Amino acid sequence: MAGKPKVAFYWCASCGGCEEAVVDLAEGVLDVVAAVDIVFWPVALDFKVTDVEALPDGGITVSFINGAVRLSEQEDMVRLLRRKSKYVIAFGSCSHLGGIPGLANLWDRRSIFEWYYHKAPSVADGGSQEPRERVEVPEGTLELPAFWDVVKSLDQVIDVDYYLPGCPPTPKLIGNAVTALLKGELPPKGAVLAGTRALCHECPLNETKPEKLLIKELKRVHLTKVDPEKCLLAQGVLCLGPVTRGGCEALCVKGAMPCTGCFGPTDEVRDQGAKGISYLASILDFDDEADIRRAMEAVPDPVGTFYRYALPRSILMRSRGVKAHG
Amino acid sequence: MRKPEFEPRIVAFVCNWCTYIAADAAGVARSRYASNVRLIRTMCSGRVDPQFVLTAFEKGADGVLLCGCHPRDCHYSSGNYKTLRRYTLLKKMLSQMGFEEGRLRLEWISASEAEKFRRVVEDMTEQVRRLGPLDLDGGD
User: Fold this and answer.
1) Which one, A161, A183, B8, B136, has the greatest CB density within 10 A?
2) Cβ contact (<8 Å) for B98 and A150?
C-alpha cells in the first residue's frame, strides 16, 4: 500500500454526526477508500492507539479530527495525531468553533457535576457517584479520563492546518477537501474550506429578501407557519444567514428552517455572537426601549442563539462566578 | 499587609458630537472626577460594534460605558437607536455569561451636559469598584 496517502479520522466531544457525514459520501466513500490508506478510524475500523504510536512522526498525511476537546484523553489523542500528521483538519463545528458541547462553558466542571450527579430530577436519591479518575479494585487501578473545566475548539489545543465547517460538513465540501488534498492543491494554511461570503449569497430565497430589512415582530420558528418560498427574515423568523459563512448551499433554509450559524462567521468577523447581536439590533425596527425589550423576548437565550456553535471561540470565553444550574 | 484598593478600569466609548464635547467641557471647567475612565472617541455611538465592547473586557476593562446623543438628537439621525438595541441585547447576553449588572452601562449625554458626564463617571466608577475586578477566566 506504499505511496497512498495515509489518513486518520478521530472524534472527540461530538455527537457522531460528522462520522455519519463521511459515510454519507455514499459511493464516493469508496473512491476515497481506494485512493487513501486509512490508518486510524476508531468508530469504523479496528486500529489501536499503539498502531498510531508506531507510525513515524509526520507519517500520516492528514488527520480529520471532529468534536470539541473536553477530556484529558481527547487532548492526549489530538496531540498524538498532531505529531504524527502532516496536516490536521478540524472537521465540523465542534472542532472548528467548539460547537454545541462548547455551550457547557457557561458552567464549570464543578457545577456540571453537581447538577448531573446530585441535583438533576432524574437522580433519585441525590447520592450518586461522580466519575472518578482513578479507582482501586482488586485487579488493580482503573483510570478514567479527566473532565476539563472548559470545552475547547481544536485549535485551542493543537495547531490546525484547515477547517471544514458545518454541523456536519456537507458531503460535497468533504469531497472537495479530500480531492484538493489528493491533488496537493491546498489553500493557504488556516483557511476554512468553504465559502468566503455570507450564506445569503447562495440562498435560493435571497431574491425575495427586501432591499432594506426591518422587522417589527420576531417569531420563533416552532410557533410559526413558515412560507418556504419567502426569505425567512422577511417573515420575522430569526435566520443567521446574513452573518454566517456560506458553503452549505442553504440546506436548512431549503427545508424551511432558519440558518443557525453552524458554518461559523465569515473571515472578517472575530466574534460570532457579538456580530449576531449587532445584526439583529440593526434590523429590529423599534426605537423605544420597552418595544425593543418586548420584541427581543423572542430571543430568550441570546448566548444559545448567537453562540450556538462558537462559545469557546468567543472573545469572552466565560467569566468566573458563573451561576450553577437551577 | 493591607491590600491596595482596587482601582477599576473603565472604557468609555464617547460620541464625537455630544459626549466627547461634554467631557471636554468638563475638563475646561476643571471639574474633578475619578480618573478611572479611558475615553475612546467614535464618530457615533452606532459605530461601536459589540465586538469592541467584548474586546475592551478582554483587554482588561472592568466596566464599559457607552455614551451617545439623546434620542432624536443623533447627528446621523438613528445611530443612537441602534446603540440602544445592541445594548439591550448585549446586556442580556453578558448576564447569561455571568457578568454582573452595572459592568455595561449606556448613557445619553449631550454636548452641554458636562456635569452629567462628571456624575456618570463618578457613579459608574463607584459601582464598578463595589463589583470588584472582572475576573475573566480563559480556562486552564
Assistant:
1) B8
2) no
Instruction: Kindly determine whether residue A321 and residue B138, on different chains, have CB atoms separated by under 8 Å.
Output: no
Contact A282, B90 (CB under 8 A): no
pLDDT at residue A42 in the model = 92
pTM reported for the whole predicted model:
0.90
Q: Per the structure block, which three cell numbers stand in for B138? A: 480563559
The torsion angles phi and psi of B90, rounded to 5 degrees, stand at -65, -40
What was the ipTM of the complex prediction? 0.89
Å from A45 to nearest chain B CA?
Answer: 34
What phi-psi label fits residue A32: left (phi over 0), alpha (psi between -120 and 50 degrees) or beta?
A: alpha
C-alpha grid cell for residue A99? Answer: 460547537
> SS3 of A142, please?
strand
